[in-house]
Amino acid sequence: MNSIPVLHFLYLSIILFSIGLFGVLIRKNAISVLMGVELMLNAVNINYLAFAKYWNWNTLTGPVFVVFVITIAAAEAAVALAIIISIYRQMKSTNVDEVHYLRG
Amino acid sequence: MANTIFYLIAGIIICSAFLVVTLRNLFHCALFLALAMFGVSGVFLFLNFEFLAIVQVLIYVGAVTVLIIFGIMLTRNVMDDKTRVLNKQVFLAIIAAAAVMTISFSAVGKSVFFEGDHPTITMAETSAAPDPPKPSSLGQNDVYALGLELIRPEKGYAFSFEFVSVLLLSALVGAIVVARKEKS
Predict the structure, then answer these.
(1) CATH number at residue A64
(2) Would you say residue A100 lies in a domain?
(3) Which terminus of chain A has a smaller tally of CB atoms within 10 A, N or C?
(4) Each residue of B96-141: pLDDT tens digit?
């Protein structure tokens, strides 16, 4: 009994994505919002690899996309933290509710 | 046995992800984020993508979490105990997240891909010694094949690969420029 239904991987991915979305929506601190986004990206990675494993085609498209997603997530985290630190210097706050310079 | 370990890892991931989004202390959030990333790399190991599991640990646990902890420390005095960590739209957020989860569950359950017998992912039998990589083999868990797939010009990923490297360089320069202290 060494097999797991592929649906369970998808369920895990859905739950992780929803928790990340919940975190993005409810938190005030911008760094917490960033953490929620990282959780959502990880849910997407689980989905890619589960499908790549399940459909045993002779391609590596799923792992290649996971490599790209991990790279872009790292770049996004670096830029987002730089922006958060810059905003903190100007406003002494990292709450996403209070940053409304661009409000029309 | 392997099934039990998978469901244990899944439970760890879900619990620590929930703690990431609900805990007050941002440091604890970051540490539970690292635990969730470890769990996700364990799931990658279950799917026989060993290289990506190691990459996951290196980048997420080693780089992103440390970066987030540095960001927390640099914006430290926001988090005294009196301030609220949640905003006013908690009920709307609960409704939205539950709606996304329900719709995705029902969509996955009704998908034509999964009709009939439920497909399963079989764990690879442990082989004694893996074959040395051959240029023609495109094994699922082969680092050699993955690298070849990324840079071979006829596959179509070579441009994306180079583009991602340019993106990383611009993100590096942009992060330095944005976070630099302005001379006044």
Answers:
(1) 1.10.287.3510
(2) no
(3) C
(4) 999 999 999 898 888 766 655 555 665 554 444 444 444 444 444 5
Higher-confidence residue of B37 and B115: namely B37
B171 close contact with A: CB closer than 8 A: yes
Residues of the domain holding A39: 6-91
Pairwise CA distance, residues B90 & B88, whole Å = 6
Is residue B34 within 8 A of residue B65, CB to CB? The reply is yes
The 8-class DSSP code of residue B109 comes to H
Residue A83 has pLDDT above 50, yes or no: yes
Helices vs strands, H then E, count in chain A: 3, 1
Q: How far, CA to CA in Å, does B148 sit from each of A57, B44, B157, B162?
A: 17, 21, 10, 14
| Interface confidence (ipTM) of the complex | 0.90
Q: Do B13 and A16 touch (CB under 8 A)?
A: yes
Is B8's Cβ below 8 Å from some Cβ in A?
Answer: no
Number of separate domains in chain A: 1
Q: Which CATH architecture has domain B1-79?
A: Up-down Bundle (1.20)
For B147-184, how does the pLDDT look when each residue is reduced to its tens digit (9 = 90+)? Answer: 888 888 776 788 888 999 999 999 999 999 988 877 66
Facing B164 at nearest CB: one of A31, A68, A79: A68
